[in-house]
Structures are given as C-alpha cells and as structure tokens.
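A common beginner's mistake is to predict each chain separately and then try to dock the pieces by hand. The better habit, illustrated here, is to supply every component at once so that their relative placement is modeled jointly.
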Amino acid sequence: MIQTIIINGMSFSLPLFIMAIGGIYSERSGVTNLALEGLQGFGAFVGALAGYIAGMHFGADSRVPQAVALLFAILGGMAYSLLHALLCIHFRADMVISGVVVNILAMALTTFLTKSINRTVFGAASNKIDLGVLPRITVPGLSKIPVIGAFFTNVYPFEAVIIVIAVFVWYLLYRTSFGLHLRAAGDNPAALDAAGVDVSRIRYLAVMMSGALSGLAGICFAYSISAKFSGDIYVGYGYLSIAALIFGGWKIMPTLGACMIFGFARSAGYQIVQKLGLPSSYSDLVMILPYVLTLLLLVFLAKNSQAPKALGEAYDKSKR
Amino acid sequence: MEDHIIEMRNITKRFPGIVALDGVTVQIRKGEIYAILGENGAGKSTLMSILFGMVEPDEGEIYIRGRKERISSPNYATELNIGMVHQHFKLVSNYTVTENIILGREPKHRLLGVFPAVDMKKAEAEVAELSRRYGLEVDPKAVISGVNVSARQRVEILKMLYREAEILIFDEPTAVLTPQEIEALLEIIRMLRDGGKTIILITHKLEEIRQVADRCAILRRGRLIGVREVASTDAEEMANLMVGREVSFHTEKKKAEFGKTVLQVKGLTVLNEDKFPVVKGVSFAIRSGEIFAIAGVSGNGQVEIAHAIAGLMKESEGDILLNGESLLSKDVRERIEAGIAYIPEDRQEMGLILDFKLKDDLALKKYYRHPFAERKILKHKTFEEYGSKLIDRYDIRCANSTETLVRAMSGGNQQKAIVGREIEQDASLTIFVQPTRGLDIGAIERIHAQIVEERDRGRAVLLISLELDEIMDLADTIAVIYNGEIGKIAPAEEFTTQEVGAYMMGIGKGQEGGKHEKAQ
Amino acid sequence: MKKRNETVLVAVIAVILGLLAGAVMMLILKKNPLSAYYNLLQGSGLAPKGKYAGGKSMFSDFSSYIDFLTPMLFAALAVAVALKAGLFNIGISGQMLTGAFLATVLVGYGNLPAVLAKPLVILIAAAGGGVVGIIIGFLKSRFNISEVVSSIMLNYIASYIISFFINTRYVDPVSRQSKEIGQASRLTLHQVLVGGFRYDFALGFILAIIAILIVRFIFDRTVLGYELKAVGANREAARYAGIRVNRSILLSMGLSGLLGGLAGATYFLGYTASIQPKVLPSTGFDAIAVCLVGGSSPVGIFFASFFLEIIEKGSTYMSSQAGLEAEIASVIMGLILLTSACSSFILAKVSRRRVEGRGSK
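With all components supplied together, the output reads:
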C-alpha cells in the first residue's frame, strides 16, 4: 500500500513540481502568473494533437508519438504563454485579471478546437483526443530497496524527463547570468535596467519558460490521469502549483516538498477509499483533499510570505 | 578653445504640457567637480538623464571628448565611461554587494568545463580589490537589505568604478545622509577628482557646493541662469539666482508659549512585521504651543512612532496619552476623533486616494459624520461646499475645482490638500512627517509658515523630518533618534547641527568610540 | 462626464474586436459569420426565426432569453461589488452552486406552498453564497490569502462535495443530474400558456433590476459605498482614514457572495430546475467579462449582459443552423474578455495622457 501511494504520489507530484518551477520563473521575474492552469491545458492540447497525428504515422509500439507529444506540449505552452506576457508586459493589463482571462480563453479554445478538429479533420464527433497508455518503467536493482525502491518502480518515462529538466532549470536560475538577471527583475527592475539589461526581454523569457514547463506538466497529467486530452484537464492543478510555490517561498527545493505533500495526500486518500471498500462516488471526497490542503497550507504560510518585491508591478521605463 | 570632456549644446526637452529644458548649454572640463544647482523641477535631473541616455533630448547636441554622440541608452553611456548614482538607489535588495556590482557584467566561467556560469569567487575578489583601491569600505558578501544607507551609496559608487566610469554623476547624493556621512562622501568625491575622474554633482544644497565644487551651473525652470566659479561667488548670490528672488533662510517665528501637556509617550516599543523592535522604549511629551521635532536618519524608527500614535501600528509596550487619556484601546478612527491630525510621509500611498475626486479626498476623515452624512447616506452637497471652501482657503490649484481627479494634480497641490484637510481637523496634536519632501522653495516656505501657525494656535506639533535644516529652523524642542532609541531630548537652542548629527549616528557628544561605533 | 463616454467607447471597441476575431475563426472554418451572428439573435428571440414549433414564437424565445439573462445580472453585479473594493471574486460559480444546492435540498424537494417556498429559496441561496463569500473575505483579511486562489479552491471543494451528495442521495438515474425541484420552489414560471403561446416568466428578473438599483445606490450615495471604494482604490489610505479595512473586505465579499448565491438560485432553481454534478456553471466566469465590459458600473452591467448573453443563449440555435460547435460562444466571450482586459490599459493610457498634459505645473 505504501508502495502504491509513493508510485501514484510521485506521478502526480512531479508534473505539479515542474509547473510550479515555471511559476517560480515567471513570478521571480516580477510577472504574477495565475495563467499556469490555462498554459498547462493549452500545452496538453497541442501535445495531444501532435501525438495523435504522429501516432497515425508510427506503429503502436513506437515511442515516437509520445516524445512528439511531450515536445509539442512544451512548444504549445510556450507559444500560448506569449499571450499572458503580451498582456502583462506590453499592454500592462492587471496581471491577476490577465491570468484569469488567459485561463478562461484556454478552456474555451481547447474544448472548441478539440470538437471542431475531431469533426472536420478526423470525421468523428468527440470531445477528447486519445493518447494511448504510456508504458511504465521499473529500474532493475534500485527498485528492490525497501520503501525507497518504490521511487524506482512503475515510473512513467516523463518522470525522468521532468527530473532532468528540473535540475537544468535550477542551474539556469541560480548559477547563470540569465538567472541573476531574472531574479533581479522581480526584486528591483529599475536596478536591472540601470545595469543595461532589458527588463521586458527577461520577463518575456521568464513567462515563456513558465509556459513551456506548464505545457510539459499538462501533457504529463493528460497521460497519467486519463490517457486522453479533454476538458477534464482543467481541474485547478495550475492553482495547486501556485499554492505550492507560495508555500515553498518562491524557491525551487522547498516547492518540491510542497508538491510531494499534495501528491502523497491525494494518492493516500484514494488508497484509503479503496481499502475501506467505499463506492466510487466517495472518490469525489478524496478529490477535495489537495484543495483543502492548499487552503490550510496557505493559512499557515501566507502571512509571512517572501514574495518577490516587484511581483505584479508592470515596469514602466519612463518612470525610472 | 578649452578642453571640455563634456559639452551639451542647446539642449531642449519637452514633456507633455511642460518645457523641462529650454536651450541649456553646459561645458564641463576634465577633472573638475561641476555642480548643477536648482530647485525641484528646475530641470537638473532631466539634463543628467539625457547625458546618461535615459531620456533623449528633442533638440541639441552632445559632445563627449570632442566627439558628437547620440546617447540612446544607459548602456551606451556606460560605454562612453559615464556612470551615475541615482537619487533612489538602484540596488537589488536581496542580492549581495558583489551581485549588485557585477549585475549586467558578470565574470563567467564554466561549470564542469561545459555549463557557463557566473564566477562569483572571481567577482568577489574583484570587488574587494576595487574597494581597497578607492578606500570605499564594503563587505562583498553582505546582503544589501542588511547594510545602511551610506554603505549602499558606496556600493553604487563601486558599481560605476567597476564599469570603469571616468565621468561620475551624483544625483542629490546627500539627501539621505547624516552630516558626518556627508563629510565622508564629499571627501570621497574630492579623492575621486584628484584621481582624475570628472564629477557632476546635482544638488539643491549650497553648502555642499561651497565645500567641494569647482564650478556651478544654476538652472531655473528649465533655463540656464548662469555658471559661476565657486571660489569667487557667495552663497547668497547663488541662492538668489536659483530661486529668482530674495530668499529668507529662516522662518519667522515668535517665541514659543508652552501650555499644558498634550501628548505623552511612555516607554513606547513597536515591533515591525518580523516581530523585530523598531522603536525601543521611547518616552517624550509635547505641550500645546510646542513644535517637537524628531531628527534622525531614515529608517531609525521615527515613522513607526508616528504610525503608532495614529494607531496604524500596534504598540507592543508602553502607553500613549492624549490630553491625559490613554489611546491604547482606541482604533485609528477613535484616535482621529480624540484629536490627532496626521500628515503622513507618503502622500500618494497613504495621504490621498489618487483615484478619488478632490472633494472626496478632502472629506476623507469626515465623510461619515454630520454634515457629510446623515444616517449613513452621503450628502453630496456638503462635500461640494466643503471642497470649495478648502480649495480657496489653502490655495489648492486644480483644473476642475472639486471634481478634479487628485491623480491629475501636481505634488505640491496634493500636499496642500493634505495639509489643509488635516489642519481643518482642529486637532490638539498635529503630526507632520517629511512635510516638504520634493516640494519647491515657495511651497516649502508656505508649509513652514503653516507649521508655525499651528503652534501659535496652541496646538501641539510633532515634526518628523530627515532635513536637518528644517528641524533646526522650526523646532522648539529636538529629540534625536537612532536605531529606535532617543539619544537626547533638549530645547532646540541647546543643540548645534553637528551635535544633532552625532546623535543621529548614535554617537553622543564627546563620547566617540562609545556604545555604537558606526551606524549600521 | 467624459470618463463615462470613454468607458462606453472602450467597451464597444472590446466587443467589436472580440466579434471580429470570432468572425475570423468562422471564416477559417468556412462558415459565414454574418449569418452565424444573425442566428445568435434569432436564438435569443431578438430576430424572427424561419419557423417555430407549436406554442413558440419570437416572444416566447425572448422570455426564455430574459430567464437566461437573469442569473448573469446577479453574477456580474457580484463581480463588480468585489472589484470596487479591490477584490477579484472568481468564485462566483462555487457560490452559485452552494447557494442553489442548499436551497434545492432544503426547500426544492419539500412541499411548501409557493408563497413560502419561493422567498425561502431566495433567502437560503443568498445566505449560502454569502457565507462562501465571507469565508473568502476572512481568509483574505485574516491570513492575507489571495482571494483568487482561495475562491478557486472553494469552487472545486463546493463542486466535489455537492457532486458527492447528488450522486449518493439526490441523483435522477435518467438525466444523471439532481432530481428536478418542485414547481412551487421554482423562480421561473415555466412554459406558461398565454394567448396560445408558451412563455417563461423569470420572477428573478425583477429582483435583479432591484439589485442593480440597490448596488448603484450603495456605491453612489452611502457611507458604506464610500468606504468600499476607498478600500478598493488604496487600502493603506483607507486604513489611515480610519476605515476598518478588514471589515470592509468581509462586507464586500459577503455581499458579492450573496449576489452569487442569488445568481445560483435564479440559474439552478429558475432557468434550470436541477444541478449537474461536477460542472461549474460558466456564468460565474463569463460574469467577469460582462463586468469588465460594463465598466463595473451597475447600469453598464445591465447593458453589457443584455448584449453579451445573446452570444451564449443564441449559440445552441446557431450550432444547429450553421453547423458550428456551440462552444464557439465561449471562445468569443473569452476573446471579448481578452480585449477588455487590454482596453482598460487603453483607457488608462488615454486618461493618463490627459493627466500629464495638465498635471505637471
């Protein structure tokens, strides 16, 4: 049972984590990002569509469609995030409103496009895109270690991809010039500007990064939760990852901890419903666990949050 | 023709509705300290923003080292070896001194021989070396939010030197410093000049110009009024040129007549958001007819004292009594009604609601009671009449009378509105925090006169200011605050400016090397 | 009153841009946007259809449109009331569900007479929504939790809990929704036969008009309105003026939630008579667009919802006539929302330019 909790917990925590890192990038650069929800949904849609099309050209055993889906989810999320960047940075819209608007539009666009494309291109009336089941991997040797072995048992390949990417973006944020500039943009954009770095450019890149990482997260959720893309992708995981990053104080490592709490609470809840032999409608009650947990975490944390100083402020060059 | 490192010829810059610079020409020699003197709004900052590439002029030409240049960005200015210390420091608060200095020009190396990364070790060594060479003492690893204002300023200077600047622009560098820190800064400036740098000093303080500058250009309302050799000009002449009329350096006031005690603060301790004490066991009393001033360097707890009296911050210990009655259990509104008027430091963030109409802002503290409201219903006519009355009485200039959006008014008129509104409170205690910041001389004189009038009307006045001149000029009694504690309270005539400065840095008179070595 | 004209102008521009973008999408899909948009009008009873089923007419379509419009009036007012105090309530969907579910369970399945049941439904839904709003306000004022995050969380919590109860206790096995409520508790007089045609009479519509007038009065003429606006425009200054900011936040969120609850009542116990499990009503989100387009003024909201809801209401008819997915309505709404989020920037720019023109001495 513990093993199942860990296996299912990780496959939920890691996508949440990579999306939260996206949020950290955006918010550390000063752009409030409530759009994660829409970014992951749109990314998942583009990825699923590309994967589906690729699937028609490759055999059933091929891994290529899945790689294509991952790649296009990243690109799709990144492209769609430009909308949020444009609204926040160029049009100086209220960043909170922009995020919500971007989410609402993503939901509308992807459901509409899924239906339209299914009907006009694939000739079938359907509101989903099937992705097929992703095979799971068990690492020989490591998986035999008691308890910890569960972390290497029945893992989705995307979990490894996420970990590699997470290490890379950690390095990018904390060790490179780009990272130094990005974090400065969220604390004192005027200082960065005076140092000769283009604040808008940095913020655009940061938001695009959040789009890319959210898109990746979205396609992972689509694979692991339902093996298809549909409107069900919008169940608030984007907001959960925001809560996780607030809980993690806008830092990558503590945010991982928060994401794991969400993941394990959720999978433990399901296990308990199963063990108690409750009817499936009780899973609705388990579903509220992450949301309740989010509120509780925020109750204990939001008061002394270490939000980036310039978070949510459009940078106006003319006012320097 | 003389050898000029900088020539700005016939510079004109217009902003919507205003000519900020009108055909200004300045010529600066290599290796001199060139001061630019003018009131707020005279155009001195705009002129330097143009030189530093932040603003492009509408007309005019710039020559650097004899070559015509179009300075389109601060980056290009940096390439031309021009550096600038801005009035509001441009520092990232959660970065170290080193990270701030190298920002935008990071030394790099490769991690594991592959991944490009910032070479922080090398950067720290370079910063330490620069700091040694120019005698600008900083700790390369200290985080900015943990160091004091003068250290931050040294970081800003090092930032320019790290970028190999030869022409150094200082924008009002002494505004936030104590007299002693000012001395030290002026010494650094002299030393930089002697090392071959060219210095441009923007200021409105004549004293500094007399001390360090070689020459001085005087701007008024966007025009160059004249350039003077400092050695052969007296302060009076420069002041008159700057303002365009005779200025009196002192506010007229008659001898104070103190009445009964109005405000009593006993052992007041205030904690900030991080539960850290910012005001520590402070006690003082203010009588009616008295201007009681608190002097101190910014961020030493003086604003928190004002907030605590007004009820905006909670007292953790001690008591505050107004006319003998404790305020502790009272909320903000009850304190206002008990007789506290408050002109806050930040007029746009706290003193006014910028998106309100003037009539609504003028009623900000009375809107809910007779005659502004009856049974929770607003009486718009009263707002209208009251607004017009205050506009006349306090000479508030506004385009659409009571309907003007406050955001659309100039800073000086916004401050007039706040001062007017608070004086009309008819309170027994009026608190002024930084009442003249950013205002021009005319407005300053007017507000100083109003402060004295308040006193003469028998009210108690608490004046909190970072401008030592203002305090020396107006106060009947002075308290000096340092690090949340009041070092000395005494009648104004018993203090010298130097002595107040010493207490502001935590060094009492004649006890150098005492408890607090240095302002940290 | 230049400012009001500007707001109207910007709103009109936003809507036109949204419709244009929608038209471009239709052209890509090789559909005629003009006829599709005309279908929208027909579907809302604002233009005559080619033919009508028995007992139907343009006016009966229109009466059904008013019935559909009523919840939106409440929902958009709810957004506006929070927004005036600087709060962004995107939890209207959850407040609608909570209020409506409580009213359904407590009254809708009972057999009280209509004179008692109808007012009771309204009161319970208002109270239910109001409590959710107050929770959000409390989390904001006490713990500084972003109202956006907490209201989204509460949306899902409400949705899942209600879905759990519907599925375990109140489900209609055929429709898979909650069982239909009794006509006595329903706020719409459904399919009433008058002169040979059937009409839907939305009793809530009258209430919505009253609500618009009350909200307008509160903000223009009362001490409470002044305080909420002060808190919304500058929280620090409001505190400095002695306004109890936390109380104002609670009040505005409570009032907003209450209106959300009424939106829920008129939707789930008016327009429909049952609740679909696990679905958050899109009205709660579209209300943001309506509110922004309406310049968050009560009267503006009335006109904005009247025009914008045509898109949602007419979409089913358009879908059947033009062969376009009905979801394109949400896309167009989303695009209008997008442009109106930007156009507030344009408005700010217009007025800022004017400010600079005369501001600096």
